[in-house]
Amino acid sequence: DVQLVESGGGLVQPGGSLRLSCAASGFTFSLNAMSWVRQAPGKEREGVAALDSDGEMTYADSVKGRFTISRDNAKNTLYLQMNSLKTEDTAVYYCATSLWGQGTQVTVS
Q: What is the overall mean pLDDT for the chain?
């Protein structure tokens, strides 16, 4: 079965950093585009960053210069390094490909 398991969320002060991880299994990770999306309370889901199998990255304007998406194909793991966090980054962050993980809560306060 395809599985995506996120980890690394938590409570951080504004200006702080977190690194999210997403462990993938059940599919050929290296051949798949992967992304991070987030959903804040009362808001629609928002694409944060994406990374395709060729290494091309895209970012939402709101996180450019602060977040970095990366992947380790040997470990079947996707990462999101988040620096200079702002209160408006508070959300549940999901790893996604053809399906979604369960999400990890990031609270900036």
A: 96
